[in-house]
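A quick word before the example. In earlier lectures we treated sequence and structure as two separate objects. From today on, think of them as two lines of the same record. Here is HTH merR-type domain-containing protein written that way.
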Amino acid sequence: MKKLYYSIGEVSDITDVEAHVLRYWETVFDELNPKKNKAGNRVYKENDIETILKLKELIQEKKYSTEGAQQVLKKDDEDDESKEIPVSVKKDLKEIRLFLNELLEKL
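And the structure line, produced from the sequence above:
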């Protein structure tokens, strides 16, 4: 299920973060900067999704402000220690859950 690029809708489904929130986070966080294709649509890579999942954890789950989340991201870049569950594993699990839910709907 791994792809080189994901649309904003796919990223929204994988991360459970609405598209308008993703667009807003792009304006606030330098770490989140998806490219745009020739049609002008955002295309996200794996590392963008990992960043979004980290932001979701900080802002929506741990209730950090955007400034606080920026500080944590900068500190994480400096420290780069291993966490309890790597963000890439969380992303993979979200993709699996999405796939299984789609499969369940077909049954």
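Notice the following. Helices lie at 8-15, 19-28, 46-61, 66-79, 87-106. We will return to this example when we discuss secondary structure assignment.
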